[in-house]
Task: inverse folding
């Protein structure tokens, strides 16, 4: 069966150990978590975990059923199955040279990014967008010499309640 | 009133209806054991923590109540892991209380600290670390609720020493009573199931442990009898349907009966209730029940469409689902004409005649199956039987006919050698007046043999029927069949003299070496007071048949006749 990336949103108790339990459901069965984002919800008693994993449909259903069995998991939604928006943010540190400056500026412009800090001959860029946008930005920046980078992983939200 | 954590703990246990716990003390438990010393709760001091968990598990399986374990931190806690995993695989409600180092030392590699919550995360239904005494009572009640509700399972509560010593305000509450779920109106699906039953010419019921855990045996029997549908039950489900009933087909799967497997392979309707299509039951999955519409009832949605894709999934506890089926049958005045099932019954009879459960009797050697048959004959199927794991377990499942639920206690999912004996102790504590027999292998029995002392200390009159073949028999069988008899590391001839061991522990020990001694030894052993071990020296290289080759379809069984000598 065809595999594709699924984004799951889990509403969980905001308690120690909950993330480990969720991760264990996937890890214990040999499934990789591609991206992961966690923070408290409006109600601080709960957290929202957003994770993506690449699976076929049947496996995905099994994973969802196992996750909702956890006592501390209160809701599981596959955001890939509903109308939703998704974003990822990336921070990239680059060494500036006379040769790459102009290209970097152009890329920032193209991807609606911005310079977060500039320190001597180093700068840190911020780019936000859908995963594909981030991938493209990264591909463009790579040849210009990336020092290091960090990505948030995907956050996503249903368009409507 | 201000009370200490340890005192609250005992109080909550009483509120939950617990009268006996299985435990083993240690440094961080001293406050709790000081409470226990007051004598408000019965404590069975085991000889190894694994034994405590299996005993609590056996207690739970026999009685339907939650079993409770108390062990110390570090090694005490880690010794429980096999028992917990065992209960988890078979969905047995137990609560395991582990001592923990004081909260301020957690995470410092303190003396006898292990992260037992982390270790048992994947093999508990849920677990808790109680960090404040104020949360203690609520957490404990929740643990009991989780253990027994829905699909039951083990719950662990980690109790740091300082929390047990701390004080808080506590008002005792009346004993907890779990309310029974009221019968629900029949769903559309239940109506559909009625249609399927009416249309089917080759129906079959396959029941599992869920029927026993869900106390739904009576409803199952009602359904089968009214619709005249033959019944097979998985290892975990034995006892839900009487083993002497004409509709009974025996166990399916790897060492199931030929006719149960053939019925599965030819049925046009399978009503699967409270079972989870384990690979030992289904064999090669694409060949499982190829002609059947499958109805699957289970409380756990994650069990449905996990291994076998079914046509009618019903997420429900077994009792309510069966009740609604039975109510509809009543309402629709459902009857089956005798000739409606004739062809199907004739076919099943033919399969039974072709290949009944059998073995080659012998006048010179004790056949293991003969021991179990004789045990059945003498106890009339009324004993509570526990088993170890291996050939002994399969022969017990094949040759003892179970009449009632909660009378066959066996490690199904995990296959834990060493389960049966401590489980028998637990079952005997739940039913002091019943006959409780552990059918054992000589390998398995040595895994928790230390509990012989426990049985003597508390006057627990369990009987061990030791099927002694001097081998790790089931592994040897596979070596015989698939590795050209290279018996690598399965010879267990070096073993204690079990009669002397019995004497050393203060048990009665009996031995049979010839077939004509079997009945006498069983009669004497079963009627003797106190715990008894009966050492049956059986023919060493007997194999369990019939058998489905691992990974093969269940319709292709090796019957064993060709191998019999
Ligand atoms: C704790 C544990 N270790 C290993 C095994 C693998 N195993 C399955 S059956 C078996 C042999 C059991 O031998 P015995 O108890 O003598 O019973 P028999 O098969 O001879 O009746 C073994 C080693 C197991 N099931 N459990």
Result:
């Amino acid at each position: 069966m065809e595999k594709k990336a699924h984004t799951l949103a889990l509403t969980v108790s905001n308690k120690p150990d909950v993330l480990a339990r969720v991760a264990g459901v996937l890890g214990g069965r040999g499934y990789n978590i591609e991206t992961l984002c966690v923070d408290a919800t409006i109600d601080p008693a709960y957290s929202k975990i957003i994770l993506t994993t690449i699976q076929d449909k049947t496996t995905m259903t099994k994973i969802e059923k196992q996750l909702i069995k956890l006592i501390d998991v209160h809701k599981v939604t596959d955001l890939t199955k509903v109308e939703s928006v998704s974003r990822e943010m990336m921070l990239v540190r680059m060494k500036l040279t006379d040769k790459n400056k102009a290209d970097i500026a152009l890329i920032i412009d193209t991807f609606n990014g911005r310079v977060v800090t500039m320190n001597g001959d180093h700068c840190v860029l911020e780019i936000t967008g859908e995963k594909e946008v981030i991938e493209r930005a990264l591909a463009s920046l790579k040849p210009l010499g990336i020092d290091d980078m960090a990505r948030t992983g995907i956050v996503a939200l249903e368009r409507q309640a | 009133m201000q009370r200490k954590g340890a005192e609250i703990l005992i109080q909550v246990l009483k509120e939950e209806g617990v009268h006996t716990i299985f435990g083993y003390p240690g440094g961080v438990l001293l406050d709790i054991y000081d409470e226990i010393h007051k004598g408000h709760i019965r404590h069975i001091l085991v000889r190894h923590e694994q034994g405590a968990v299996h005993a609590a598990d056996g207690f739970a399986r026999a009685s339907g109540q939650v079993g409770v374990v108390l062990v110390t931190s570090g090694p005490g806690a880690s010794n429980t892991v096999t028992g917990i995993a065992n209960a988890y695989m078979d969905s047995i409600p137990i609560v395991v209380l582990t001592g923990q180092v004081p909260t301020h030392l957690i995470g410092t590699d303190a003396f006898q600290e292990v992260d037992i919550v982390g270790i048992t995360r994947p093999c508990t239904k849920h677990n808790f670390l109680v960090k404040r005494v104020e949360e203690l009572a609520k957490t404990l009640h929740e643990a009991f609720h989780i253990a027994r509700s829905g699909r039951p399972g083990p719950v662990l509560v980690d109790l740091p020493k300082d929390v047990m010593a701390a004080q808080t305000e506590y008002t005792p509450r009346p004993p907890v009573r779990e309310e029974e779920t009221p019968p629900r109106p029949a769903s559309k699906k239940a109506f559909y199931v009625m249609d399927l039953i009416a249309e089917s010419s080759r129906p079959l019921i396959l029941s599992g442990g869920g029927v026993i855990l869900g106390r739904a045996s009576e409803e199952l029997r009602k359904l089968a009898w009214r619709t005249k549908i033959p019944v097979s039950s998985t290892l975990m489900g034995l006892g839900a349907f009487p083993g002497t009933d004409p509709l009974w087909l025996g166990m399916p799967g790897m060492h199931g009966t030929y006719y149960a497997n053939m019925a599965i392979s030819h049925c046009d309707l399978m009503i699967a209730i409270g079972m989870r299509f384990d690979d030992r039951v289904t064999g090669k999955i694409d060949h499982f029940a190829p002609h059947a519409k499958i109805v699957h009832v289970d409380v756990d949605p994650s069990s449905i469409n996990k291994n076998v894709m079914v046509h009618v999934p019903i997420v429900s506890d077994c009792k309510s689902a069966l009740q609604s089926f039975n109510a509809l049958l009543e309402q629709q005045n459902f009857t089956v004409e005798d000739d409606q099932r004739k062809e199907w019954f004739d076919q099943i009879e033919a399969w039974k005649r072709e290949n009944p459960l059998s073995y080659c009797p012998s006048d010179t050697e004790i056949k293991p199956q003969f021991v179990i048959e004789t045990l059945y004959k003498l106890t009339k199927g009324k004993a509570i039987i526990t088993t170890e794991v291996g050939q002994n377990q399969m022969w017990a499942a094949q040759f003892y006919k179970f009449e009632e639920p909660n009378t066959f206690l066996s490690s199904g999912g995990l296959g834990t050698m060493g389960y049966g004996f401590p489980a028998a102790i637990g079952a005997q504590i739940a039913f002091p007046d019943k006959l409780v027999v552990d059918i054992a292998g000589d390998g398995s029995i040595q895994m928790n043999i230390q509990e012989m002392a426990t049985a003597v200390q508390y006057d627990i009159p369990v009987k061990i029927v030791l099927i002694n073949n001097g081998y790790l028999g089931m592994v040897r069988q596979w070596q015989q069949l698939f590795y050209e008899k290279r018996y690598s590391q399965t010879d267990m001839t070096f073993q204690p003299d079990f009669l002397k061991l019995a004497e050393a522990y203060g048990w009665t020990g009996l031995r049979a070496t010839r077939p004509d001694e079997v009945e006498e030894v069983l009669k004497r052993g079963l009627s003797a007071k106190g715990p008894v071990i009966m050492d049956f020296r059986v023919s060493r290289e007997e194999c369990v048949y019939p058998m489905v080759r691992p990974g093969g379809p269940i319709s292709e069984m090796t019957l064993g006749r060709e191998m019999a000598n």
